[in-house]
Amino acid sequence: MSIARTFNNWRKYRQTVTELGRMSSRELNDLGIARSDIRDVARAAVGR
Hints:
mainly alpha; DUF1127 domain-containing protein; single chain; 3 helices; YjiS-like
């Protein structure tokens, strides 16, 4: 994997964690995401 791709994946992961972390528990629940699952969801977003 190239350095640029690795960096872009890291940025996408951090952005997803940050955005989901700013949401209220109710908003996350509406999306079917538990607060404890935020990092797993972010990892899955990078894998796409």
